[in-house]
């Protein structure tokens, strides 16, 4: 293992700035008073919908999803700059800091494993360019210097012992294939094929695996390969043992010599380990009831996205306007409304970091909340709420087995009937839906922690996880409508005397 860095060097200046900001402007335990008038609300009062304004949503969206924040990738200075932007907006609104040590921030460590730059690969003595012609599919320390056994099919594994050998073959299509039109189809094709094929080969005790892209995988290698180059992110508690068998994925031209039966491979594979900071931003608006204000209705989204990647049509910035700047600015708008007309219970606002790296910010907060975990009455999470048909939306967690609180679902559906009036698509809540969309956002760690939770979304679209997810493509009117629905649901939770609870026996299917 080549390096163990506590904090990567490029982030040190940003951390210095965050320290200064956090101990001055954002470290105040009492933010400057808001210009909005605060009035005590009765349970029958209507929500403050007028505080959710399209012009403010648009301004915030175009700033957070701008090229200047470079896609807000977790573990980078860009994500931390986005967090400061969100925290400053929360301060301007007049929301109280609810993070660690009287600030708006909750930092946590990301453990990142990457393939080291010292890694080298040769076939028949000729160098093969890493990240152009070959990809190491998981960071690993390994040395290979051996002849290559070419396999024409997996059936060849039954004909001779492969223990200790380096084997190569063409990548085989996975079974079953990803569903037609499934998001990130090429990525899922390659990942499923790799998992299935390498599982068979590892059972044979091979020392190394070289897979040559088939015709379907070949044009996807630039996009998928960028993910391999980026490495693996984990929370420290999630750390798993590094793989013991190296797996390399090659372009067809680079892999052609392997099929001769006389090829030899030499590989020196090294890995780096880094610890990066990521951050949740947390703010709070106190409720009006002396007893119920100790309880919190949690509104959540994530402020990170995918950062810089291989250019698509000349654009290398994954801006993440819908995913998930729409929700980040919606939560700010809900904060403005709550300041203008507080509910009886308090509102807690959490902008998670590192969602795109595996729900890491929400996993951290669910395990290390800055308020008593028992005080969190419900979690209203959203992801991607600004695209697709104007009158359509989805509420995941509203049908079994994903529904964990019937009372909470009823409040959300009533708020939709009364205010938003969307046509609700329930098909994506089906556990058999090929996208598995329910499990891909920040409500899941809270559900697993036994807290009532819902997932508001307007679902996927062709620009998902591409540089085309730009602010100019967002339907601002629909975004405002989704924001009001989410807010009205939280308003009902806040002002209903009886606390919503988890249904007896609620259990996710996975």
Structural class: alpha/beta
User: Architecture of the largest domain, according to CATH?
Assistant: 3-Layer(aba) Sandwich
The CATH topology label of the largest domain is Aminopeptidase
Label the overall shape: elongated
The CATH class label of the largest domain is Alpha Beta
Helix coverage percent: 25-40%
Tell me the Rg in angstroms.
25 Å
Q: Report the span from N to C terminus.
A: 34 Å
Description:
- This protein has 11 helices and 21 strands.
- By secondary structure, it is α/β, with parallel strands linked by helices.
- The chain has 2 domains: 47-112 and 276-495, 3-Layer(aba) Sandwich (Aminopeptidase); 117-269, Glucose Oxidase, domain 1 (3-Layer(bba) Sandwich).
- The strands form 3 sheets. Strands 1, 2, 3, 10, 13, 14, 17, 18, 19, 20 and 21 form an 11-stranded mixed sheet that branches. An 8-stranded mixed sheet has the order 5-4-12-7-8-9-11-6. A two-stranded antiparallel ribbon has the order 15-16.
- Helix 2 packs across helix 7 (321-340), helix 3 (77-93) packs parallel to helix 7 and helix 9 (406-420) packs across helix 11 (476-495).
- The longest helix is centred in the middle third of the chain and has 20 residues, at 321-340.
- The protein is elongated.
- Residues 1-17 and 19-38 have low confidence and may be disordered.
